[in-house]
Design a protein that fits this description.
CATH class of the largest domain: Mainly Alpha
Largest sheet: 5 strands, antiparallel
Number of strands: 12
Shape: globular
Strand content: 5-15%
CATH superfamily of the largest domain: Transferase(Phosphotransferase) domain 1
Length: 486
Amino acid sequence: MSRTRWVAAAGAAGAAVGAGLWWATRRADGSGPVDAADRVQRTARLATAGARAGTGYVAMRARAVVADPERREELEAEYQLRTAEQVAAMLGGMKGAVMKLGQMASYLDQGLPEPVREVLADLQSDAPPMAPELVEEVVTRELGGRPDVVFAEWDPVPLAAASIGQVHRARTHEGLEVAVKVQYPGVDRAIAADLENTDLLFQVMSFLFPGLEPGPIVAELHERIVEELDYRIEAAHQRTFAAHYRGHPFIHVPEVVDTLSGARVLTTELATGARFAEVLEWDEDERQLAAECLYRFAFGSIYGLRAFNGDPHPGNYLFRPGGQVTFLDYGLCKRFSDDEVTVFERMIRAMVLDRDLGAYRRILGEIGILPDSFDVDEDQIAEYFGHFYEFVMDDEVLEITPEWSSRSVRAFFDLSGPHAEIMKAANLPPSMVIIQRINLGLFALFGDLGARNNWRRIAEELWPFVDGEPSTPMGVAVAEWERLRV
C-alpha cells in the first residue's frame, strides 16, 4: 500500500471510528449487563484518536497542496508517524482486546509504512505499566501476602507489560529466579466491553488494516481471548508444553511454579535471551537457525502435541545463539482434536503430495469451507489455496521474503483482490482460523529474518504420515533427543 493510500485510509477510518456504533447490552454468557460506562469511555477514546487522525489529515493535505513533491512526501511521513504514535499510546493505555489488535497489526501486515510498524511494535512487550500499588493489590489478593513477603526478592519495575498483564522479576525463598505475571485489575471488564462491542473492534481493525476484512480475526479473538484471563488455564497449557519439550536441545518452555500461581498471578522459572529485534542484527547463520527452531516448534507442536501456542508474535520469544529459543505466554492456546488433525493431513496429501485438486475441492466441501454449490474450477483452487502450501510444495530451498509474507496476509484478508468471490463464499471453521493465524504470524517474522531453508524436507520430518529422515543438523539433534526420550 502506498503512503498516499494509507494516509487517505487512515483519515477516513479516523473519521468513521466514532460513528454509527451499536452497543451490546448483555454479557456474552447472558449473566447480566456489562458496565455501560466502560463501553462508552473506551469508545470515546477511540473516537478521539480517530478525530485527531482525520483533522491531522486535513491539515496535512492543506499544507501539501502548495509543497513540492519532496516536501509532500515528508509531510505525509510526518503525519504517519504522528498518527501511529497517538494510536499506539491510546491502544497501550486501553489494554484489553483493543490493544491485542494493535499488537497483531505490528507484525502481521508487512504493508504498513515502516514508521507505523515501528511505533506499534512497542506494544509487543513494552506497553505502559500499571502502578506498583495495583501490582501489590493483585499479588496480595491472589497469593495471600505482599510481593516483598511472598517472594524473597521482588523487582517493582516490570520486565515487560502487554495487553493482559505485566511481568516482574523475583526470587523465591528457595532461591529460584522467577518471572511473575500479574494481571491488570479491571482488564476483565475491559475485555468484556471490547468483545461485546463488535463494531468497535471492526473499526479498529479497519484503522489498522485499511482495505482488509476484519471478521476472521475478530471472531477468533472473541473465541480465544476470554481463556487468557484465567492464568490457571494458561498454567495448565504451559505445563503440557514444558513436559513435552523438557530436555529438548533447542526448544525451551519455562516450568510453572504452582505454589506461587493463581487465577490472576502466574509464576514461572525466569528465562533470559535476546529479543526478536536483536536477532535481526545477528549473522546470517544464527538468523536461519532461529527461523528453523520457530518452524519446528509451530508445526511440530500441532502434529506431536495436538496443540499450539496460538499467539505467535515477537514478544513471546527469547533467543540464544545456536538456534535455541524460549517460548513464552501460553494464554492463547489451541488444542486440536484428532479429527481436525486428520483433516490437515488429508488436505496436505491432496494438495502437496498427490497434487489431486479434485480431492482437495471435495475436502473443502466436506468440512464446509466452500459449499458444494459454489462453482469454482481447479485452476482457481490451485491459484488461491495453493498459495498457502507454496513454501512446502517442492523439494527445494525457498526464501520467505517480506513481499511473500505480505502477499499471504492480503490473500487471506483482502476482499478487493482477484479471488474475492472465493473469499466471500469461504466459511473457515475455527480450527482453520487459528491455523491461518499461526501461518500469517510466523511467516511475517520469517519475512523479517529472511528465512531460507528446504521447508518441504523439514515438514516431512514433522508430518507423522510421512516421517521423513532428518534433513538438517538441527533435525539430526532433535531425532536423537526423540530416540533417547522414548
